[in-house]
Specification:
The protein has 233 residues and is α+β, with helices and mostly antiparallel strands. It folds into two domains: 165 residues, NADH Oxidase (3-Layer(aba) Sandwich); 31 residues, no CATH class. 33% of the residues lie in helices and 12% in strands. It has nine helices and four strands; from the N terminus they run αααβααβααβαβα. Strands 1-2-4-3 form a four-stranded antiparallel sheet. The two termini are 17 Å apart.
Length: 233
């Protein structure tokens, strides 16, 4: 596309009618805070099966999804404290049909990098990883999950665990070494749902501010040709 992207963030009804090519799915994706019903457990499991196909360092495959449906979902809201928090701020979140915990297992990575073909990398212990790729890879799987929900015109909300994450993880039998990258609430987006998060009060930074070519430059010296009127979808 030549020239600035059309600004669509001021009209969410227009954003929701964008086509289903990958670029449009990425651009229209947003967080949902008011749900009305949702997909079946089987449908969510199918989406998780696709979402797990994210990059994985050494093909360590240490990302897991814990899907909470029905009574398990209600237990999550109670034990984590998220139910009380959302009841005060965004009560419509409680109407989601599933919660998916995105989990990362560091041991899968240190074990993989202790194998003969990887041991020379010096990454056989957690402390030697400058960037903890178990979190990076799980975050990419979480993004896959959000985009797949948008592809199906579902709603989704990514949020962190409230309070001490271990209390919640222990309740659902998650091993001590495993971290939670985030929780994703899934359901059908209510027709009345409107953006209410930080993106409604903060402008998205332009590509000329965050995309650098050749070397880091200040926003005023960004690559020529970048549109600064970037949508906030």
């Amino acid at each position: 596309m030549v020239g600035p992207w059309p600004r669509i963030s001021s009209n969410w009804d227009v954003a929701d009618t964008l086509p289903d090519d990958l670029t449009s799915i990425i651009r229209r994706r947003r967080m949902t805070r008011t749900f009305s019903g949702g997909p079946t457990l089987h449908e969510v499991l199918e989406v998780c099966d696709v979402a797990r196909r994210a990059p994985s360092a050494g093909f360590s495959q240490g990302c897991h999804f814990l899907v909470l449906d029905g009574p398990d979902k209600e237990t999550f809201f109670e034990v984590s404290g998220a139910g009380t928090w959302f009841a005060r701020r965004s009560p419509g979140v409680r109407d989601c049909t599933q919660i998916v915990l995105v989990l990362a297992d560091p041991d899968a990575y240190t074990d993989r990098y202790s194998e003969p073909d990887k041991i020379d990398r010096g990454l056989s212990t957690r402390e030697t990883w400058v960037c903890p790729y178990w979190l990076t890879d799980a975050a990419m799987a979480a993004q896959n999950l959000l985009l797949l929900c948008e592809d199906r015109r579902w709603g989704a909300l990514l949020f962190g665990l409230h309070g001490d994450p271990r209390v919640t993880l222990d309740r659902f039998g998650v091993p001590d070494a495993v971290h939670c990258v985030g929780a994703v609430a899934i359901g059908h987006r209510s027709p009345g749902d409107r953006p209410s998060g930080s993106s409604t009060v903060r402008s998205r930074r332009g590509a000329n501010e965050v995309v650098h070519v050749g070397r880091w430059v200040s926003p005023s010296g960004g690559p020529a040709g970048f549109a600064t009127d970037d949508p906030e979808v």
